[in-house]
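Entry for magnesium ion complex. Fields follow.
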Amino acid sequence: MSEFVKIVEVGPRDGLQNEKTPLSIEQRKSFILDLMQTGLKNIEVGSCVSPKWVPQMANSTDLFLSLPKDKHINLSLLIPNLKGFEQAKAVGCKEIAVFTAASESFTQKNINCTIDESFEKFADVLAQAKADEIKVRGYVSCMVDCPYEGAIAPVQVLKVTQKLLEMGCYEVSLGETIGTATPDRVKKVWDICLSEIGSHLLAGHFHNTYGMAIANIYQSLEQGIRIFDSSISGLGGCPYAKGAAGNVATEDLYYLLSNMGFETGIHLDELMLASKNINKVLNRHNPSSFAQAYWQNDK
Ligand code: HMG
Ligand code: MG
């Protein structure tokens, strides 16, 4: 049997949080309903952050409530603090994600606090989540470079990741936030992290600004990472990382993994339909190389 790779689809959150014109709840819902047909088992639906900071993600709990629940699909929400946690809990969300960074400057710009202060906020969230049996995923941004500080020491990435795991996150996703890294530098981060942490606890979240995301994922696979975040059609970026492009496109990740013999659970026709529909709504060109070849050659 082929080895399974877990994919966390972050298009509805990371993908849409940076769109100039926020989509309506109906449009976001229709996007997620399409994604729920693709075989993707983990979908980050939105975030419970301040709507003043990220208006695109406003009303994510209404969106969550409007979605049909399927016990085989994890629908999660990103939250920065206890207020966000309470909102997610109130709509019956069973999985949330907390987020900090390996860079002080990025943490300050993104969530308006220091890294240590972010841990203090998460301690309350994790304690409450444990009591409520809500699973918590962690994100650590700037695994290689920070848009404000430049190169980040891999040991700092390890420290922040270990802290989130000790606090009770079941898995931590390392964000290559601005997409500047090449595989040699990604390798150094995994070398240090994997010397202390099991690969089953770590995920890779690669943005594709310089077209390196697939190369970085290949490097990560070589080192034993089997969990990746991706965004359909490479949607996205981070509002607090100017110029950062979207995540690796789910279509390209599918092509890499399926051709390397990994199982992903993705149904290709449904994935391509979801991709076609969201690009139409956003009136954008799909930068995924696989998607371009697929439409040119196969259809
Ligand atoms: P703050 O101003 O320090 O917070 O912001 P505060 O506690 O002083 O509250 C200020 C106001 O925000 C108050 O409202 C609060 O009620 C409200 P006011 O009294 O002014 O009307 N507020 C909230 N509203 C809704 N939901 C909440 C919430 N909390 C406070 N949960 C805060 C701190 C964290 C809220 C703010 O900085 C924020 O919302 N930041 C958003 C950051 C964000 O969403 N960034 C993008 C996601 S991270 C990412 O993309 C990286 C990732 O993809 C990995 C990678 O690529 O590296 C994960
Ligand atoms: Mg991201």
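NOTE: The pocket of magnesium ion (ligand 2) is lined by residues 14, 175, 205, 207, 238, 247 (CB under 6 Å).
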